[in-house]
Amino acid sequence: MDEFKKQIQRKLVAGILVDKCAHCDKLIFRDAWCTQERVIRFTTPYFRKLFSVKESGSGKWKTGDCVMVEVNNDPEAFIVNCVFSAASVPNDMLKMRDTLLKIVGISNPDLATEVILKSWDLSRTDNDTNKLLDSFDNLIYQEIPAFESQLQDKITTANAALQELKEGDIKYFDATKYERNPKARRACLAAHGTACMVCGLDFGKEYGPEFAGKIEVHHIVPLSQIGKEYVVDPVKDLVPVCPNCHTALHSKKGGVYTVEELRALRSKK
């Protein structure tokens, strides 16, 4: 196709595309976003909502949007790209940016450049304008909505996976809490020392002077079983144990191991 015919067809197709975009309720379109007849641009309600942006006079396309669809109106290479301007993403939505990039398989993006999320090649070798426009209709009414739906499914799945791994939420619940007396702890350690009564571990000797005195105190009869306030005997009721042995002491089904029982189990091993 010679250059003159190419220009005529480009202008013809551009006029039809602009009219289609302007009257399609699935798109958000402004004439001012287009580069004459060469590039027709629009976005969608889905992408605008995805990054919670408002139309403005700033940003990559002076629309405020982070994602735009660019129709490269060339009779010989009619390519439509869904373009993501990652650098335009607001700071409070960087997690969504990273999620979207990961979903489309981009692990190390150059955020200063545009990222193509999806590309459609509607080029025709037969130069049949009517069939080209039919393909464009199918694109805006079928393929783009399907692409958005696929993205949303993957975003939902990714967010659900992150939620399963989430830690640190504050949980409020009713429970009975039994207060420990720090004076009783000090008296216990003064009587028994700071080595574990089960395995003999002494943190100061094992890890160095800065760990001296690090030990837990175990109630031989758990406070939860006593269920009331009472005067503790630091020598008879309390013993120093390391965290591992403390966990093991409380691992007996239906009760608590005694120090002697746990020592016997260790000796068998």
Number of strands: 7
Q: What is the succession of H and E elements?
A: HEEHEEHEHHHEHEHH
- How far apart are the termini? 87 Å
**Count of DSSP H/I helices:** 9
Radius of gyration: 35 Å
How many discrete domains? 2
Low-confidence segments: 175-179
What is the residue-averaged pLDDT?
87
Descriptive overview:
By secondary structure, the protein is α+β, with helices and mostly antiparallel strands. The chain folds into 2 domains: 3-150, no CATH class; 182-268, no CATH class. The protein is 41% helix and 13% strand. It has 9 helices and 7 strands. 20% of the residues are buried. Residues 175-179 have low confidence and may be disordered.
Chain-wise SSE layout:
Layout: H1 3-22, E1 28-29, E2 39-43, H2 45-50, E3 67-72, E4 79-84, H3 94-103, E5 115-121, H4 129-165, H5 182-192, H6 203-207, E6 216-219, H7 223-226, E7 238-241, H8 243-249, H9 259-268
Helix pairs in contact: 1-4
